[in-house]
Amino acid sequence: MTAVLVVATLSLKGGVGKTTVALGLAGAALQHDVRTLVVDLDPQANSTIALDPEPTSATVADVLDEPRRSVLHRAIARSGWGDGLDVLVGAEQTERHNHPDPGPRQLDQLRRALHRLVHPDGLLGDHTADGADDPYRLVIIDCPPSLGQLTRSALAAAHRAVLVTDPTMFAVSGVQRAFDAVQTERQRGNPDLQPLGVLINRVRPRNTEHEFRISELRELFGPLVLTGVLPDRSAIQQAQGACMPIQRWDTPGAREASAVFTLLLGRVLRSDRRRDPDEDQDDAAVVAPPATR
């Protein structure tokens, strides 16, 4: 049996596509039969809207108020994208938990909530939205674009962090602050947390400014910058507007983005050495692309 992996998608600069990455990773997990729970911590609740879940009688705001199993069960719904992908739904009311200077108990609420879903054998998923017994293998936390209680709570609960940015003049400082936040949380009380990598979004080919910023990021952060970059394609926004995973949007731009998310999922799964001791296999071996129809 495998253990759950909790991954936070993080950005301390708004408008860079953090939610796009969370949704793309969730779509890749669904495509490759990796049972997944998306936790929408952003008060804008854009992930929840795009994932089109069934109605719930509670939200993540209620869970943070009272992280009991019964509240969790009422706040988790099956995604409209298909079986195997559930949502701990977000809401505007989550903002009341985004204190700028939270105490230790406030920061621990999300971790405690996720712990309530743990099987006796240590696996998340004793209750899933459709009543299945299969555990979640992956939990994706979509964080708000600020370093308040919500983002810090996600880092306190996560094992890995994907740092999302775009190739603009503010990218370097934004990534540096996000990286520092991860390192601070590691020292504060979550030594399992590691930065998975920096994913650059909204890249335009043959754009001199973008090429310069990407080179700058790679010079500063080295191998932490992921090789695959997300292109600036309208198909991504179109798929989100249709409440569909990018993996089902049949255009060249969508296929290009989908390939990046498949590689990211492979890196996510390969990063968990507790579950996969074979450190020599590459990302493509972990998640094989779907068969061509």
From TrEMBL:
Compositional bias annotation for Low complexity? 284-293
Superkingdom assignment:
Bacteria
Enumerate the residue ranges of region (Disordered): 273-293
Which SUPFAM superfamilies did the record assign? P-loop containing nucleoside triphosphate hydrolases (SSF52540)
Spell out the InterPro entries in the cross-references.
AAA_dom, DNA_Partitioning_ATPase, P-loop_NTPase
- PANTHER family assigned: P-LOOP CONTAINING NUCLEOSIDE TRIPHOSPHATE HYDROLASE, PARA FAMILY PROTEIN CT_582
Q: What is this protein called?
A: ParA family protein
